[in-house]
Amino acid sequence: MIKAVRGTRDLLPPDTETWNRVEAKVRDVFERYNFHEIRTPVFEDTALFARGVGEETDIVSKEMFTWEDKARAQSEKSQQLTLRPENTAGVVRAYIEHKLGQSGALQKLYYIGPQFRRERPQKGRYRQFFQIGAEVIGPPTSGSESPSRDAEIIEMLATLLEDVGLTGWTLFINSVGDANCRPAYNEALRVALATVKDRMCGDCQRRAETNPLRVLDCKVPEDQPIIDALPKIGDYLDDACRAHFTAVRAMLDKVGVPYTVNPRMVRGLDYYTRTTFEFTHGELGAQSAVLGGGRYDGLSEALDGPKAPGIGFAIGEDRLIMALQASQPAAVLTIDAYVAPLGPNTNAEALGICRKLRRQGLKVELGDESFRLKKSFEAAERAGARFIVICGENEVTNNEFSVKHLATGEQVSVARAELAIYIRNHGVKKPGGEHTAPDDLQ
Ligand code: ATP
Ligand code: MG
């Protein structure tokens, strides 16, 4: 038997109801904040990630699905391609390629889609997973550098999580400085690491030389006390970075979004500057980060683009849904009505009724005339139907159909023209109440 590949999974009903509900809510939030959707390819030139994410990151150094796409004609060259491990690099590439900055307007873009990383599969960690993300990017004259952008995006996330129904999250923020002040911090880290790195893991020993900031990402438990004692980036910020961070925090304080400053949080991508942030949730265990993001003021230039400061985030949708499902009952699949053709030559009539009801916006399932009454009721129950509409020969002749409310057993006869109205208005669960019985019929 062929099975789904390790680290990938099928999302099945009724879970997909939750996924769709979350995505609909999220799109609604993005719309209110004036974001528009972008869809970039699932694979890109490997160089985009090597340069846009950073060679020393976990993603590029060990997690990418990369292959050589061999030339198929003499005129073609073979190419190194990679399944996208994240979407920011792709969005910024598209921003540059399509000259989205030319209008001078701030670009507010969002995406929802699969990402691919070759990591060890475990709870909350897959090789194909989904991210919901957004980027705010534009020429400096568009206001893209303003701390308002950072605060607005973080405030939007607090609203978004509230709208999808997630409570109990924690927001961590930090500033990682910029090209002006980070070299001094990197140097301080290098000096401090020189005396302690021999006691650290292999990755840290290497990074202490190549990219000391990445040491702060290390997850090896024995290294943690050593890392906690290293110099803090907050003590090395220059005046401009410090003022930016102070402004972001003041705005979050003003609008009442609670946060904790975590001086160690540098996040896993090399291109981050100034503000970085992460939302965590207690239900998620070891993989506690629901989302992460930050500012990336030099990324466009690193990809040969124009100066285009930006800030963005990516929500791990799998983890978001896992956290939601821990606190919410599982989705139940239901329909408004099950139409049961009973007796020979009633299938076409039943399809006609279904067509009419569906065109009026009702969720309806069609039975089959080979079913007896008992089997039709069983099928209606299994489909989660509120009503069963009996479509027998007599009903068709009289143009009146027996409609039975499954929860109460009440049965009435309803004229064909009234079916949709009757089903829509009766037996609907009132908020917090019982089902209304069909004899409520005015
Ligand atoms: P982690 O520290 O958990 O590896 P990360 O820093 O690699 O996270 P980002 O690159 O910032 O993650 O991605 C943003 C979000 O995407 C994470 O907060 C997480 O919710 C989710 N995510 C990252 N990798 C995976 C994965 N392999 N499977 C499921 N979700 C993931
Ligand atoms: Mg990771």
- The N- to C-terminal Cα distance equals 57 Å
What is the helix content?
25-40%
The tally of helices reads: 15
Q: Would you tell me the overall average pLDDT?
A: 93
Q: Report the biggest beta sheet as strand number plus sense, adding barrel if it closes.
A: 8 strands, mixed
β-sheet strand percentage = 15-25%
Low-confidence stretches: 432-442
Q: How many structural domains? A: 2
CATH C-level of the largest domain: Alpha Beta
Neighbour order of strands in the largest sheet: 1-5-6-11-10-9-7-8
CATH architectural category of the largest domain: 2-Layer Sandwich
The Cα radius of gyration reads 28 Å
In short:
This protein is of the alpha+beta class and 442 residues long. The protein is 35% helix and 22% strand.
Report on the architecture of this protein.
The protein is α+β, with helices and mostly antiparallel strands and 442 residues long. It folds into 2 domains: 15-175 and 255-327, Bira Bifunctional Protein, Domain 2 (BirA Bifunctional Protein, domain 2); 335-441, 3-Layer(aba) Sandwich (Rossmann fold). The protein has helices at residues 15-32, 46-52, 58-63, 88-97, 147-164, 182-196, 202-210, 224-228, 239-255, 299-302, 317-327, 347-359, 373-382, 393-398, 419-425, and strands at 36-37, 43-45, 66-69, 79-83, 107-116, 128-137, 169-175, 260-261, 273-281, 289-295, 310-316, 335-342, 364-366, 385-392, 400-405, 411-415. The strands form 3 sheets. Strands 1-5-6-11-10-9-7-8 form an 8-stranded mixed beta sheet, with helices on both faces. Strands 13-12-14-15-16 form a 5-stranded mixed beta sheet, sandwiched between helices. Helix 1 (15-32) packs antiparallel against helix 5 and helix 5 packs parallel to helix 9 (239-255). The protein is elongated. The protein starts with 14 loop residues before the first helix and ends in a 17-residue tail after the last helix. The relative contact order is 0.11.
